[in-house]
């Protein structure tokens, strides 16, 4: 697992969380900036998933592969699902959904990094 990509994913998701929270507080629906931001976050998460899969194929990684791939799969599914729900809910709550998704991606990436390094 590449720590640089993990850092990019964590910082990008926290930035998107903050932006989504501001939009929700201002009582606005999701705009194009958040949509593009979450699309870029999804690309970064897919790159990270590629590094994880390549590492596991090379024999690296933790012993518990089920938990590892559970986190990777969850991370891949969260941004598109959040954007879909935010587009369906065109109120402040759609932006709030995106804020929760950004926080979830940051936490899941940090946990994935801990699993990979054998810390937890």
Give a description of the structure.
The chain is mainly α. It is built from four helices and no strands. It has helices at about 5-25, 30-55, 65-90, 90-115. Helix 1 runs antiparallel to helix 2. The longest helix has 26 residues, at about 30-55. The radius of gyration is 15 Å and the shape is elongated. The mean pLDDT is about 95.
Labels describing this entry:
about 0% strand; single chain; about 120 residues; 4 helices; elongated; mainly alpha
Secondary-structure topology with pairs:
Layout lengths: L2 H23 L6 H26 L7 H24 L3 H26 L3
Helix pairs in contact: 1-2, 1-4, 2-3, 3-4
Q: What is the terminal separation in angstroms?
A: 15 Å
| DSSP strand count | 0
Q: Return the average pLDDT rounded to an integer.
A: 93
- Low-pLDDT sequence parts: none
What string gives the helices and strands in order? Answer: HHHH
Structural class based on helices, strands and sheet pairing = mainly alpha
Q: Rg to the nearest angstrom?
A: 15 Å
- State the helical fraction: over 70%
State which percent range the strand residues make up: under 5%
Note the main sheet.
none
What overall geometry do the principal axes of the alpha carbons give?
elongated
Number of helices: 4
Q: How would you sum up this structure in a few lines?
A:
With 120 residues, this protein is mainly α. It is built from 4 helices and no strands. Helix 1 (3-25) runs antiparallel to helix 2 (32-57) and helix 1 packs antiparallel against helix 4.
């Amino acid at each position: 697992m590449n720590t640089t990509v993990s850092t990019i994913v964590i910082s990008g998701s926290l930035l998107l969380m903050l932006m989504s929270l501001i939009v929700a507080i201002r009582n606005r629906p999701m705009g194009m900036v958040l949509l593009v931001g979450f699309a870029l976050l999804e690309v970064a998460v897919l790159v990270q998933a590629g590094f994880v899969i390549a590492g596991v194929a090379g024999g690296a990684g933790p012993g518990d592969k089920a938990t590892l791939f559970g986190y990777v799969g969850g991370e891949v599914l969260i941004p598109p699902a959040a954007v879909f729900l935010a587009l369906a809910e065109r109120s402040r709550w759609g932006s709030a959904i995106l804020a929760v998704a950004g926080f979830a991606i940051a936490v899941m990436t940090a946990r994935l990094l801990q699993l990979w390094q054998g810390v937890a």
